[in-house]
Design a protein that fits this description.
The strands form five sheets. The protein has a four-stranded antiparallel β-sheet, with no helix packed on it. Strands 7-8-9-10 form a four-stranded antiparallel β-sheet, with no helix packed on it. The chain is globular. With about 160 residues, it is mainly beta. It is built from no helices and 15 strands.
């Protein structure tokens, strides 16, 4: 079992580093993404956010008109994906990337990050829980400990 990672020991500004953890995303038992060649971002009070290489995405995405701005990484582009069992069901803006990230985050240029749902996300075979709330995209696994930002009363942390 991996050692516990306390989110209050993660740095600010966030740390970007390669991870060899096996990441999979499955939707209705269809494999959407699969990689052991990703990055994670570790930020104070947040569980890891994972960035997967574009070639690990096994299902087509369409670009969304939605965008947002991260003070650390820059302007984010959002993506839509159709349900593999019902292509009329389109999930919007639950995947994002950075086409022109800031200098410190250039390594994740065009890598994709997924919110942990409506699909199932796995880290080394363990199904993750989504970071509390619906704003941040961290993945919570059993090796994460400490109070996590995102739920009620945590906005100003």
């Amino acid at each position: 079992m991996p050692p516990k990672l306390n989110v209050h020991n993660f740095p600010r500004p966030p740390l970007l580093e390669k991870t060899s953890r096996h990441l999979q995303i499955k939707w209705n038992n269809h494999l959407i993404a699969d990689t052991k060649d990703a990055y994670w971002v570790l930020e104070t009070t947040h569980p890891p956010t994972y960035y997967l290489p574009p070639d690990s995405i096994l299902h087509p995405l369409t670009r969304s008109s939605h965008s947002s701005y991260c003070e650390w990484k820059g302007a984010a582009t959002y993506w839509n994906i159709a349900n593999p069992l019902d292509t009329s069901e389109l999930v919007r803006n639950r995947i994002w990337s950075y086409a022109k990230p800031t200098k410190s985050y250039e390594s994740v240029k065009d890598y994709l990050s997924f919110y942990a749902g409506p699909w199932d996300c796995y880290v080394d075979g363990e199904k993750v829980e989504p970071q509390p709330g619906d704003f941040y995209g961290g993945w919570v696994t059993s090796d994460i400990e400490g109070p996590i930002k995102g739920g009620p009363g945590t906005w100003g942390w």
